[in-house]
Write a structure and sequence with these properties.
With 676 residues, the protein is of the alpha/beta class. The chain contains 28 helices and 21 strands. The structure holds 1,4-dihydronicotinamide adenine dinucleotide.
């Protein structure tokens, strides 16, 4: 056995070289430049002393290769550096592909990005059918597309429709799904994986050609039509000026699919220019912000055997089913048995949505969730999540009644969106056990959970709540107890400005368009209608009192019949759950509409920084991106201020303040920021 820093070479009796990948001092393998260079040298040696076959495998537990090292990626300063970087990967993949003995990639666990591209350069790919095995090319999520030959080679293997779909969505596939689209050659149980890899290495079977449809859709006559269709689908989700990578990928395929060598060369050039765009830099930043949030939940080891949720309404019901989906044993309590029946019915719908046709997973999740009208689960639970009516006295009387039954070390979490934690905890014998766990609606789709630290909250309880949120696959953010916490507080001025503009006579369509042009996933007026105007009003009421924000007339005088999407009408009328928008409306000063929306949001973000609502500016950006969907390609509100220029935005803010009153007064928090 010989070895380098990252690789061990083991030759067996059949003269098969087993190449074990093991990044030192890391829990997962990364195809960093050092590992690429070492592997390149190993393959060069094989060219002179050819083994019978080569099998690439990982020595990490339950993971193959996570991809390239994104940290290296952030150090690239210009296109030339990026191109040289891409070429090193290409040299390795081309050399591996050209090796004249059979090569096999043996995958168990996560295999992403560069790991998949390395596998594609092998003759055969076999993977375990384990739950943990996921194979994908997620580069698009970082503002680039595969750059180590993955574009041409995945299309060659799977045909353009399946390969482009995988690359354009960035979705990672189970090994069965990967086999179905022919990305891999075999999917087998873990215990048979080695034998399967060995069989491919020794027998080197011929691969069947792609089906006719796959070959036809790659034909130069049909490609323009297919590419047009793909562009149309991409355009419905992402604008080219905001997210250039998917468009670049489609162009690459359209122009070069007839010539693999040229496609590979052009792939490297395209990725080198994408990698140095602001979009890619900001999406990489978002990736690291996500890691930062996850790390907030890693400080405590909180073992939860049972979760008890009180309140089976919109939020409590969804929180309970989410926890059951995540593998926890859950009881859900509600004062109304009829409501509980609905909660369980809706949970079935959530399980079906999550697990699709996997009946066993649906049955297991259903078994884990029990309706508990009398609250028997209180005494069993390690964490109790309260999501009952937003009423201080009702919540306090519930706490008083359940505290004597709670386990000694159980924690109590409230989903309140507006009541001060101190007003709730003061009724408890152990006020330190109360923490806020503020989920967003809809629970299954919103990744962020704000973990609210009341003045009395024990540090240990805080850490346990952060860990719990992470363990149920959410992104936890520690937030100071203060009106609106972080996300609603920053979102509300933006929503109120939008509604004020409607009061002034500006069409909702114009306002929403200004926001989506900026990069928001949905305009503020449609968002208000979707959340429900009554809910918006109640949060706005609380914040307007605490932060001195006046309520627009439109919100003050709500009609019960026009509360938004749920009643079929709000600012828009709804048909089949979709707003009816007038495409013909226009406005003479669209830029100002956008400035008014965005600057109120930015100004509030700087106020939160000044008040230390979360620990630092990165966490504000993370909270706003994952809690509201704020244009990820802009890197977050504070990053946007820094990259656009504090001076420039301050001038716009000042001119808005002189035209539209002091709600645009510049917060002192701006002085804490400086432009890059
Ligand atoms: P909801 O009205 O849909 O559900 C509340 C449920 O609590 C009802 O089913 C009711 O029967 C039950 N309930 C009330 N008092 C109870 C008691 N003493 N014992 C047992 N069950 C009781 O309310 P929703 O919207 O789910 O809100 C719940 C909490 O979540 C509130 O504190 C709210 O501020 C917060 N929240 C709501 C969000 C939303 O978008 N709806 C978003 C984030 C937080």
């Amino acid at each position: 056995m010989s070895e380098t820093n990252n690789w061990k070479i083991e030759k067996d009796d059949n003269n098969i070289a087993w190449l074990h990948f093991d990044t030192p001092d890391a829990s997962a393998n990364l195809l960093a430049q050092a590992a690429i260079k070492e592997l390149n040298d190993i393959i060069k040696d094989f060219e002179n002393d050819l083994p019978r076959a080569v099998i690439i495998l990982s020595d990490k537990k339950d993971s193959f290769i996570f991809g390239a090292d994104i940290k290296e990626f952030t150090a690239l300063e210009n296109k030339e550096q990026a191109l040289a970087f891409m070429h090193k990967g290409h040299d390795l993949m081309n050399r591996l592909e050209a090796l004249s003995c059979p090569t096999v990639s043996m995958i168990h666990g996560t295999c992403l990005g560069g790991g998949t591209e390395l596998s594609l350069a092998c003759d055969y790919i076999v993977a375990s059918d384990d739950k943990k095995t996921r194979i994908g090319l997620p580069e698009i999520k970082l503002g680039i597309h595969p750059g180590y030959g993955g574009t041409a080679r995945s299309i060659e293997r799977c045909g353009p429709l399946a390969a482009m779909n995988m690359m354009l969505t960035g979705r990672a596939l189970t090994s069965r799904a990967a086999k179905k689209i022919k990305l891999i050659d075999e999917s087998v149980p873990v215990r048979q994986l080695k034998a399967a890899a060995q069989a491919f290495a020794l027998k080197a079977p011929e691969r069947k050609p792609l089906p006719l449809l796959a070959r036809l859709s790659n034909h130069s006559l049909l490609r323009p039509l297919v590419a047009w269709q793909m562009r149309k689908q991409v355009a419905s989700k992402a604008k080219k000026e905001h997210y250039p990578a998917p468009y670049s990928l489609i162009d690459l395929w359209l122009k070069y699919a007839d010539d693999k060598k040229q496609m590979l060369q052009q792939e490297a050039i395209a990725v080198a220019s994408l990698a140095t765009t602001d979009t890619a830099r900001n999406l990489v930043r978002v990736f690291f912000l996500q890691e930062k949030l996850k790390s907030q939940g890693k400080k405590a080891d909180f073992k939860v055997q049972h979760v008890h949720v009180i309140g089976g309404g919109i939020m409590g019901g969804d929180i309970a089913s989410w926890c059951a989906i995540q593998g926890y044993s859950v009881t859900v309590q509600d004062q109304s048995p009829e409501r509980l029946a609905q909660t369980l019915k809706h949970a079935q719908y959530s399980f079906g949505k999550k697990f699709k046709r996997d009946r066993r997973a649906i049955r297991d999740a259903s078994d884990r969730l029990l309706a508990d009208h009398r609250g028997v689960g209180v005494s069993r639970a390690d964490i109790i999540i309260e999501a009952i009516f937003e009423d201080r006295d009702v919540k306090r009387s519930l706490y008083e009644s359940i505290e004597p039954q709670m386990k000694e070390h159980a924690i109590l979490a409230t989903n309140t969106s507006s009541i001060k934690l101190e007003d709730l905890s003061s009724c408890l014998k152990k006020p330190g056990r109360l923490v806020g766990l503020h989920f967003f609606n809809p629970v299954a789709l919103m990744p962020l959970v704000e973990i609210i630290r009341g003045n009395e909250t024990d540090e240990k309880v805080m850490q346990q709540a952060l860990a719990f949120a992470k363990n149920i696959s959410k992104l936890p953010l520690a937030v100071k107890s203060s009106p609106g916490f972080l996300v609603n507080r920053i979102l509300m001025p933006y929503l109120l400005e939008a509604v004020t503009m409607v009061d002034e006579g500006i069409a909702p369509e114009v306002i929403d368009r200004a926001a989506t042009d900026f990069g928001m996933p949905m305009g503020p007026i449609e968002l208000a209608d979707t959340v429900g105007l009554d809910i918006c009003k109640s949060v706005a009421n609380i914040l307007s009192e605490a932060l001195g924000m006046p309520l627009p007339e439109n919100l003050k005088n709500l009609s019960d019949k026009k509360l938004g999407k749920k009643t079929g009408e709000g600012f828009y009328k709804y048909k089949n759950n979709k707003p009816l928008k007038n495409k013909k409306v226009s406005c003479s000063n669209r830029q100002q509409v956008q400035d008014r929306l965005v600057l109120r949001l930015l100004n509030e973000a700087t106020a939160c920084l000044r008040e230390g609502i979360v620990d630092n500016s990165d966490l504000i950006d993370a909270g706003v991106i994952f809690g509201t969907g704020f244009a990820p390609f802009r890197g977050g509100p504070l990053e946007y201020i820094k990259s656009t220029g504090v001076e420039k935005l301050s001038t716009t803010l000042e001119s808005l303040a002189s035209e539209y009153s002091d709600r645009f007064s510049k917060d002192e928090g701006w002085s804490l920021l400086s432009s890059d």
